Structures are given as structure tokens and as C-alpha cells.
């Protein structure tokens, strides 16, 4: 069984309040100079081989359900 990873991140121009909160907390904990943007990761188990057609299906699912493409970008990759 193969695994496909979909990483979803806010677009660069979109405010990321969760990332800002984590950035502030890291600074207070003694980790200055780090900047965080928080996103989502989906691990999708695929029966059989991961073909271009299957990857296209996962991309469509990501675009229609997993990511809000108005404010988020996503990346699809196969995990070996």
C-alpha cells in the first residue's frame, strides 16, 4: 500500500494567527529568530500502485476538500 502526502499551507499573503502565536511562544521559551507558519498534513493510503491517474484524483480531492484554495496552497507527493 502506498502513501500520498498532501501538505496544505496558508498562502504567503494570508495572515497566520496560529503561526504568529507559536512564533511568539518560541521566543518566550528561548528560541528567538524563528518564524513559524502553521499548516495541515494529510496522509492518504492508496491501494495498489500510485499512477498518474491516482495522483490526479488525490490532487482533485485536495483542491475540492482538503484545501481552501482561496487562502491555501497545497502540495501532493508520494512517500516512499
Automatic annotation (TrEMBL):
InterPro entries: PurS (IPR003850), PurS-like_sf (IPR036604). GO terms for biological process: 'de novo' IMP biosynthetic process. Its EC number is 6.3.5.3. It catalyses: N(2)-formyl-N(1)-(5-phospho-beta-D-ribosyl)glycinamide + L-glutamine + ATP + H2O = 2-formamido-N(1)-(5-O-phospho-beta-D-ribosyl)acetamidine + L-glutamate + ADP + phosphate + H(+). It comes from the Bacteria. Keywords: ATP-binding, Cytoplasm, Ligase, Nucleotide-binding, Purine biosynthesis. The keyword Nucleotide-binding applies. One of its GO terms (cellular component) is cytoplasm. One of its GO terms (molecular function) is ATP binding. NCBIfam families: phosphoribosylformylglycinamidine synthase subunit PurS (TIGR00302), PRK05974.1 (NF004630). Part of the phosphoribosylformylglycinamidine synthase complex involved in the purines biosynthetic pathway. Catalyzes the ATP-dependent conversion of formylglycinamide ribonucleotide (FGAR) and glutamine to yield formylglycinamidine ribonucleotide (FGAM) and glutamate. The FGAM synthase complex is composed of three subunits. PurQ produces an ammonia molecule by converting glutamine to glutamate. PurL transfers the ammonia molecule to FGAR to form FGAM in an ATP-dependent manner. Part of the FGAM synthase complex composed of 1 PurL, 1 PurQ and 2 PurS subunits. This is Phosphoribosylformylglycinamidine synthase subunit PurS. It comes from Raineyella antarctica. The gene is purS.
